[in-house]
Amino acid sequence: MESRLEILNILIPMALFLGSFFVFLFIWATKSGQYDDLDTPSKRMLLEDEVDLKE
Amino acid sequence: MTTETNSQDFETFSYDDKLTKMFVIATLIWGAVALFLGVWIAFELASYKLNLDLPWFTFGRLRPLHTNAAIFAFIGNAIFAGVYYSTQRLLKTRLASDLLGRIHFWGWQLIIVGAAITLPLGISSAKEYAELEWPLDILVAAIWVTFGINFFLTIQKRRERHIYVAIWFYIATIITVAVLYVVNNLAIPVSFMKSYSVFAGVQDALVQWWYGHNAVAFFLTTPFLGLMYYFIPKAINRPVYSYRLSIIHFWSLIFVYIWAGPHHLLYSTLPEWVQTLGVGFSIALWAPSWGGMINGLLTLRGAWDRVRREPILKFMATAVTFYGMSTFEGPLLSIKSVNSLAHFTDWIVGHVHSGTIGWNYMLTSGMIYFMVPKLWNTKLYSERLANIQFWSSTIGLLFYIVSMWAAGITQGLMWRAIDDTGKLVYKDFVETVDKIIPMYWLRAFGGTLVLIGFLILIYNVYKTIKNAPKDQVEEKFKALPLSAVPLDTHGGRHRKLEGLPLLFSVLAFLAILVGSVIELVPSLVSNQFIVMDARVKPYSALEVAGRDVYVREGCYTCHSQLVRPLIEDKLRYGRVSEAAEYVYDRPFQWGSRRIGPDLHRIGKKYGNIWHYRHMLNPREITPLSIMPNYPWLYKNKVKFEVLTKKLSVLAALGAPYSEEELKQAPAMAKAQAKLIIDELIADGVPEKMVNKEIIALIAYLQRLGVDMAEEKKDEVTSTK
Fold it and tell me: In this complex, which of B477, B489, B514 lies closest to A49 when CB atoms are compared?
């Protein structure tokens, strides 16, 4: 059945294309500094936002 | 590097908590419905009479409604409530759009109502946990995307630079579910409420379980891990045990999870290497899962006295414990030798419920007890009731799990018991059914306790809200905008990267696709895995009509259509199933359970009259049977006119029907029905039954698995 093979033409290049992004993703997450500080985020999330008392 | 900030730099904002409240209430309502349905169908298995001889009450139709309600209505609404609550607080911002939030809410409820109407009517695509027909599928996709857009826009307007780990779990959820859902539901419509899957047979099976497994992974697990990482630290007011571990947990989990789907298809006709890959990754999953569990539990370390006292923490600690238990059991069940015993048995059902009730229900309950007093600015009505709920649900769940273990292992051992002469010890399948009926009662009892627990939760929340102050004002908060938050590292680099959350999401989306694509592509495209066999012909028009009845009634919820290459399967059912036999099956109907026997070799096993009597009242043939009666199949007429359309769609998808067969489909179906009725008349069946659905169903059942039984002719082809 030809129809199945046609999927191949889309999916294989997609896999390769995505594969490279996969690696890029790791690099981005670390390089952009998201993980530079792994100590304070877990503590900061405990702080409630400051209530605005102006009104 | 500190920057002086003036008070006027602060921005004021409020949270859209109204939306969260709406989702909390929806969770409670649909939770009760989903659990009630579960209890009802549990009793149906214990006593077939509860099927009530009414189409919309039969197990085959209500079971899909139960699973969809539990996953998408109950747990879905709970996810949205928790995600909206925590995201706004973690990102120090209001949701990007109140309107999109409302569209999300009402759209989702509309889908649920649609499901509640269509599934009992038998409008089903018969793919597990994806039974909704195409119009609803489109709505699901649209609403999910609405949710996603609002979520990512919210990330973009955040006032907190660091994206807390919970949010990452939500991102993975949103993106993956979108892809999974769309791909698995690709189908070509025949009419407003009927379609045929674009995938057939083995390929459909692979796509379905890649979806099915990841529905568990990315709908029942990742969002809840995000919720765990938010609500447990908040509830106990201390940071997560190891933030570093949570990040590792996240990445390793999403990378590994996506590959594990084929463990649902062991000993099937799926290529061996795909199965092995699935098993390998399933076992590997044990590590990140337990990493997460340990991280959750250690967050509670040294505060066990509080866990003992406070219901919220009690629910959460129990949830994490069950998460650990079911993620231990899962890899265990993927080991081939264990799987050969457990697959198709109730053990799997127990496993699923230790996840959904133990993990999802428990965490949801804890989360609701945490959020409700805060959302409505009041105190919980009764801690005592919360404790009662806890015990009722926990004990109920233990009854459930233990009875299903016992039932599953009993079934598994009885099915495979072979005596010295090499014969099956329990030749009659129904013996193995009858044996576990007491377990079905115990399970139904356990489920009832869980339901009672949930009703207590509803009452408790209702009273809490009723006692809340009448005038609920939105509190105002203040925080610095992102531009005023100092950057601690890399200096200028961040500027460039600021718009990246959106990009990041796109990347994560692509990342998940990689795993999926690599696993799916070879089987989808390589014909050498499916040796086409010229003896296998597409279903006749009447058989297509019969197959659609099979799909509509949800026979797959009780019957498999897959004879595994195991000695006990061969002895009981006959020749092992081959991939080539399924090439015209849209959707595939392998099923995942054998409440009744496998049906792949049912064709020609009995005479037509056997089926005629059996479908009307199975107990007339098999006194101990628990299969529902299907009296309406003897009243409903086959819709012959639509058969041309149906066959055309199947032909467009690759079934080699001739022009003649398409044009003459109704006439040819009637002719085949005539042949069957002519034979049945001798046994006293009135001739007027000729146009009834039962005849079409018999035609289909008699066709099942017979094509390759005939001698191989010379012209066997292997496509390409």
Answer: B477
